[in-house]
Amino acid sequence: MKFFVSKKKSNSTLIFVSVFAATLAVVGITLKVLNFIRMFKKNTDKFIMLKDTEVDCGGEVFEDKCVAVVSARAKIDLSEALPSNNPMNLCLKCKYSNTEIVVPADWNVKVQGNTTKSNIINEVVFDKENFEAPLLFINYVTESSSLRIYSENKKIEE
After folding, report:
1. In this structure, how many other beta carbons lie within 10 angstroms of the beta carbon of residue 26?
2. Is the pTM value of this prediction over 0.85?
3. What does the pLDDT read at residue 36?
4. What b/e string do you get for 7-24 counting C-beta neighbours within 10 Å, with b at 16 or more?
């Protein structure tokens, strides 16, 4: 007894299996990306993805804020923020991004965090002896990102 499979039926089965496998792959990748975004957005006040953004905290009392940046360029400007009476915290999660943080020159800033394949440029100095200055803790987790922390000297107009 011989079984004959027509060439037409074999091609349609192959096409069906290929389309089904491609659909499963696309759905799987989409679910992984959505899960990644959901986990990255968790417990954040500001989520920045795929765009250049400036977060300006000028004129408001800065207390605690958590910012997540994914595949974007972000500038977090605290230069004109009003300090809280309590120690302040800035939580930063960066992945494939370029982030700048501008802090007031008269604040005492302590920078700490974990980095993977990232470039951290910290231009502020923590002064252990200065108990009068407002205290800001910057806690970061970066992966394949660039992070720069600095203070701008304000120019006095004549």
Report:
1. 10
2. no
3. 77
4. eeeeeeeeeeeeeeeeee
Residue 92 burial (CB < 10 Å; 0-12/13-18/19+)?
Answer: buried
List phi, psi (to 5°) of 126.
Answer: -85, 125
In a domain, 156, yes or no: no
- Residue 20, domain member (yes or no): yes
What is the spatial distance between Cα 67 and Cα 93, in angstroms, rounded to a whole number? Answer: 6
The answer to whether the beta carbons of residues 75 and 57 sit under 8 Å apart is no
38, 58: one domain? no
Whole-angstrom Cα distance, residue 97 to residue 52?
A: 10
pLDDT reported for residue 21: 93
For the chain of 158 residues, list the mean pLDDT of each consecutive stretch of 10: 56 87 92 81 87 90 93 94 94 95 94 95 91 94 96 56
Whether 13 is covered by a domain: the verdict is: yes
